[in-house]
Amino acid sequence: MTDQEDPGSRSEPTAHRLTTRETAERLGVKPETVYAYVSRGQLSSNRAPGGRGSTFDAAEVEALARRTGRREPAPSAGDLAFRTGITLIESDRYYFRGVDATELARRHTYEEVAEWLWTGELRTGMRFAAPAEALAAARRTGGALPAHCGSTDRLRVAVVAAAAADPLRFDLSREAVLGGARSLIPTLVSALPMVGGAPAAPSGTLAPKGADGGIADAGLARQLWPKLTARPADEASLDVLDTALGLLIDHDLAASTLAARVAASARAHPYAVVSAGLGVLEGPLHGAASGLAHRMLAEALERGGAAPVVADHLRTGRRVPGLGHRLYTAEDPRATTLFALLAKVPHAAPALAAARDVVTTTTRHAPLHANVDLALAVLSVSSGMAPEAGETVFAISRTAGWIAHALEEYGERPLRMRPTGQYNGPRPPQPLPVTMGTLLQ
User: Fold this and answer.
1) Neighbour-count burial of 158, counting CB atoms closer than 10 A to its CB (0-12 exposed, 13-18 middle, 19+ buried)
2) How far apart are the two ends of the chain, measured CA to CA in Å?
3) In contact, 91 and 57? CB cutoff 8 Å
4) Contacting residues for 388 by C-beta, under 8 A, at least 6 apart
5) Which of the chain's termini has less CB crowding within 10 Å, N or C?
6) CA 87, CA 404: separation in Å to the nearest integer?
7) Which residues, including other chains, have CB under 8 Å from residue 95's CB and lie 6 or more apart?
8) What would the pLDDT profile of 77-88 be if each residue is shown by its tens digit?
9) Three-state SS string across the chain, please?
10) How far apart are CA 96 and CA 108, in angstroms?
């Protein structure tokens, strides 16, 4: 759309001017709305050189953007687009605040990656601790659940219990949100029951985590391990789990993250934001996808190869779990990183070979690559974990990402995510419906 001439514009030229289109983009509105701001006296304009269209003072536009909270670019029709400084995905790689996420997760613990995501500062040796009152409330509430409840059910309940134990949860200041996040995540892990009386992960001094692998103190990963399997942990396996936690913290505006941002836009407290994310995460196309890959991989091991398993999926019209990702044309970089670490775990060799067999067999029919769900399945199958273990890892890890997005959203205009529905029901006026009671008489 070309710039329109503003009847009330002035002709004197001024430096640092924006065109109508540039102004609309800065404010995240349509060009027509820019002229509405002018007519209401919220913005002034000058006639552009040559008398075509108008120009606007850049500083005045920025001041209006701060007042209205309109900083996001105007989305295309049917799309939602928000400015974010957390995760960038491009050219089959992804980055946390500009830093390669796979390198960050390989060299630093989950807690350190979370701090980087939240604050932009890398704090080595960072550890999270669960407050006694919140943990007691989460464990009591979780203990009242039926025995058949899965870990995601227990995590959702634990979030609600922890929120109820925090009278300051409505404080949305940055420091309060960060303090709550550092206590909520270990509370979620500690509230999960041990698997079959599993022993704690081994103590002692291991090699510092870095380019050569190894972790001096697995921190949250060490706490989480016995909640996932009864098998004792070794250094290499803990390194895989800790790296998986770091890799999965965020992945731009995935469905659960969008739900979390919507909750934050309504100024829901951080616990409610996490609850919103957990609700979406449980879908089979999101966090629960790793469970499907786990079952497929276990079946491939049982049947001695991937071919019959893949054939069954193709015959019934089901997609093969753990393959393909809409954001990557090649292998998911998260899967590549975890496969490299799993190759150092001796007991993971059969499951890793089965996963590669699944990829090789499937690519004969479709050009699909492994995604992170398949890598999580290798970890869970080879470590004697339940099928839902990958979902648990996903949920614990992504909690930090939801908090990061909440912190961003709290700085935006409240309730900005208000799409308009396109009604396609019966046109009014319609007669009042006949009640069922009337029909039965």
Assistant:
1) buried
2) 62
3) no
4) 150, 151, 152, 288, 291
5) C
6) 10
7) 87, 88, 89, 101
8) 445 678 899 999
9) CCCCCCCCCECCCCCCEEEHHHHHHHHCCCHHHHHHHHHCCCCCCEECHHHCCEEEEHHHHHHHHHHHCCCCCCCCCCCCCCCCCCEEEECCEEEECCEEHHHHHHHCCHHHHHHHHHHCCCCCCCCCCCCHHHHHHHHHHHHCCCCCCCHHHHHHHHHHHHHHCCCCCCCCCHHHHHHHHHHHHHHHHHHCCCCCCCCCCCCCCCCCCCCCCCCCCCCHHHHHHHHHCCCCCCHHHHHHHHHHHHHCCCCCCCHHHHHHHHHHHCCCCHHHHHHHHHHHHCCCCCCCHHHHHHHHHHHHHHCCCCHHHHHHHHHCCCCCCCECCCCCCCCCHHHHHHHHHHCCCHHHHHHHHHHHHHHHHHCCCCCCCECHHHHHHHHHHHCCCCCCHHHHHHHHHHHHHHHHHHHHHHCCCCCCCCCCCCCCCCCCCCCCCCCHHHHHC
10) 13
Least confident stretch, 168-172, 383-387, 399-403, 433-437: 433-437
Cα dist from 72 to 163, 257, 285, whole Å: 31, 17, 28
Q: What is the mean pLDDT of the chain?
A: 87
* Angle of CA points 435, 436, 441, to nearest 5°: 105
d(CA 396, CA 406): 16
- Per-residue pLDDT, averaged over 67-81, amounts to 54
Q: Is 159:282 a contact under the CB 8 Å cutoff?
A: no
The dihedral through the CA atoms of 423, 425, 431, 437 has a sign that is negative
Least confident of 53-62, 109-118, 406-415: 53-62
Q: For 117-163, how does the pLDDT look when each residue is reduced to its tens digit (9 = 90+)?
A: 999 999 999 999 999 999 999 999 999 999 999 999 999 999 999 99
At which residue do the structure tokens 């050189």 appear?
49
